[in-house]
Amino acid sequence: MPKNEPANTSMICYLGLGSNIGDRKSYLDGAISALKKETDITLARISSFYDTAPVGNVNQGRFLNAVIEIETRLKPEKLLDIIMDIENELGRVRTERWGPRTIDIDILTFGDLVYETERLSIPHPLMHERMFVLKPLAELAPAFRHPVFGATAAEMLKECAEV
Q1: Domain containing residue 145
Q2: CATH code, domain with 71
Q3: Domains identified in the chain, total number
Q4: Could you report the per-residue pLDDT of 79-134, keeping only the tens digit for each?
Q5: Alpha helices in 73-123 (DSSP H)
Q6: Active-site pick, 106, 119, 130, 145
Q7: Fewer beta carbons below 10 Å: N end or C end of the chain?
Q8: Does some domain include residue 122?
Q9: Does residue 3 have a pLDDT over 80?
Q10: Pick the catalytic residue: 51, 101, 112, 145?
């Protein structure tokens, strides 16, 4: 059950993107293009793309990761539905947790919302431990404050051990 519901106003959200199958850049570009086409989503900024080692299941190819900033009036669950549709359109197959994927799009934050359902946890529960999230997030928004921990993206990046 959500701890607090978002207001019916525009929210700034950060999404994490990753790919480690095939033409990784093409999959990230495809996800960004698909998000741009959504009428209820405005793409504000895109981080640099980062080549990173896999985390969790380390027996797979390297990832290309980025963070994007969007603005939306969508509710979190509707945004998740759109993201999952885009992942499916780009050939995402879910066979193993933390396994190889054409594209992965995670909702990292949704304004300062703290939201927990069976399908979705916001902020992303592992974002503060993931260098591949924190580097591009700190590039875009170093002063962004984690809604639970209160630390800025730059502070979390400084504290995060290189994986």
Answers
A1: 11-159
A2: 3.30.70.560
A3: 1
A4: 999 999 999 999 887 776 766 889 999 999 999 999 999 999 999 999 999 999 99
A5: 76-89
A6: 106
A7: N
A8: yes
A9: no
A10: 101
